[in-house]
Amino acid sequence: MIRILDFFLASVGLALLSPLIFLVMVLGWFDTRSPLFRQERVGLGQQSFILVKFRTMRPDTASVASHLADVASITPLGHFLRRTKLDELPQFWNVLKGEMSMVGPRPNLFNQEELISARDALDVYSVRPGITGLAQIKDIDMSTPDLLAKTDAEMISTMTVFNYFKYIFLTIAGKGQGDRVRR
Fold first, then answer.
1. How far is CA 93 from the centre of its chain?
2. Backbone region of residue 178 per phi and psi (left: phi > 0; alpha: psi in -120 to 50; beta: other values)
3. Which of 41, 76, 101, 120 is geometrically suited to a Cys-Cys bond with 130, CB 3.0 to 4.6 A?
4. CA 98 to CA 7: how far, in whole Å?
5. What predicted TM-score, i.e. pTM, was given to this entire model?
């Protein structure tokens, strides 16, 4: 049921938001000359996939978790995209491909070993990673691996269609801060 909802919402989202996506692509080209950001992430069953987002940091920024990145690396457009969560829109493509869900644990990098261990112990990798979820609504990011893994496991064990739509609605309504970057 969730996969059907994912496919439907991602398809409709891409269709309805295509003018906005195009506009952000153009602005992103002027901002960094490279509007899309692709990065290998840990997915379902700890399999790798390439996550696609709008670029919010300079292209020469090191590939690290957001909480380890320097705030100076975020572009002016990137600040806006992160604050409004518009940087996540290209992930609808990952959802269509079946690599992600609209709702699920945020996909981490392979070098985040402490988080991988904590999530593996709680079977978090048994579901597709998501664009949003309970941890994002509660402002829990990857800087607290054990708390994040526990929150992800809680979300998985209590997932219903109602909660699925609740997390999406709360994200659209602006709940949560998005990925934090150190000051």
1. 12
2. left
3. 101
4. 8
5. 0.90
